[in-house]
Design a protein that fits this description.
The chain has 80 residues and is α+β, with helices and mostly antiparallel strands. The chain is built from 1 helix and 5 strands. The radius of gyration is 14 Å and the shape is elongated.
Length: 80
């Protein structure tokens, strides 16, 4: 099994643009043992939007999560 943190949370705040955003990723299981990658993003203080992805194996989950974390940190999100 790949050792991946079960969640990631980051924020991007820029007062000059009135920007206060969050982005979170969580790995979860359903009752049947399937793995899900849940992403949520939006303005800090709101529920935001959500997207859930079903991936076949732990390696695919790890690769997808690493790619998303790299993408968000490149765009200026700071992990909290």
């Amino acid at each position: 099994m790949i050792n991946v943190p079960p969640s990631f949370y980051a924020e991007r705040v820029d007062a000059s643009c009135n920007m206060a955003r969050f982005y979170t990723i969580e790995i979860s299981h359903d009752l049947f043992g399937h793995l899900w990658l849940e992403r949520r993003w939006g303005r800090i203080g709101s529920r935001g939007q959500m997207k859930v992805e079903h991936l076949q194996n732990p390696e695919a989950i790890a690769e997808r999560m690493e790619a998303l974390v790299r993408q968000k940190t490149r765009r200026g999100y700071q992990p909290k």
